[in-house]
Structures are given as C-alpha cells and as structure tokens.
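Hallway conversation turned thread

IA: we were arguing at lunch whether anyone had actually written out EthD family reductase end to end. Turns out nobody had. So, for the record, here is the sequence (130 residues) and right after it the structure tokens. Reply here if something looks off.
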Amino acid sequence: MDRRTSLSLLTVGLAAAGVSTAATAPSAGGIKLMVLYGHPPNPEEFEKYYLGIHMPLVAAIKGARRMEAAKCLPQADGSPPAFHRVFEMWFDSPEQMAAVFDTPEGKKVRADTPNFTAGTTVTRMVCKLD
C-alpha cells in the first residue's frame, strides 16, 4: 500500500471513529499531548505497523477534542527533520486526559507502543494551551 492510500485510510478511520481531522486550531484552553517519534531503524516497517495496527487502536479512543498524526518532512535546506513522526491529541484538562488513557482503549494504545518503537526514541510532552 502506498503512502497516499495509507494516509487516506487513516483519515477515513479517524473520521469513522468520530475524530476530527480538520486542520483548524483547537479552542483556547485545555492541554495537548504531543508524541514525537525519532527516526526508526526501519522506516518502512515502522510506517506499516504505525498506520496499519497502531493508529486504528488510537482511532478507537473516545473523549479527545481532536487528534492529528503527521509525518515530518525535510527542513527547508534539505536536511533531515528532527523527528520521523508527530502525533497530537487535545483534551480539556489533565484529568480528562488521564481518564481517557485509563479506558481499555487507552490502555491498549499505551501497551502497543513498544511493539513498533524498538530502536526509536519516543518523546512525550503535555502542553498547556493558551
């Protein structure tokens, strides 16, 4: 499956799960979880697992304001990007985020992450939205 088809399926899956994929700014306030994936040892295997297995698990999560996945592009000067992928998820509060990830669906996502990130750095950040 080519990248365009994979991204289209991801968008359809997220939309079917009731997750907005619109590129609009979230409303003020709340928090944002960011997951930054470093460059994997085998990008093709990473992409296959991430799009085919992990993201359908993510799409099953209910309660987030919005979710957005992106693949990083080279810098303007052609140098490699700092990260391979970025995932963002918006919530109303830290308590809501904790409750969402404490659901069976949230637990599945957390448990699945090591299945495709061996040899890859995974940086998680929680940011307060202004």
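OS: looked through it. The two ends are 39 Å apart (CA to CA).
IA: good, adding that to the notes. The CA atoms of residues 13 and 39 lie 25 Å apart.
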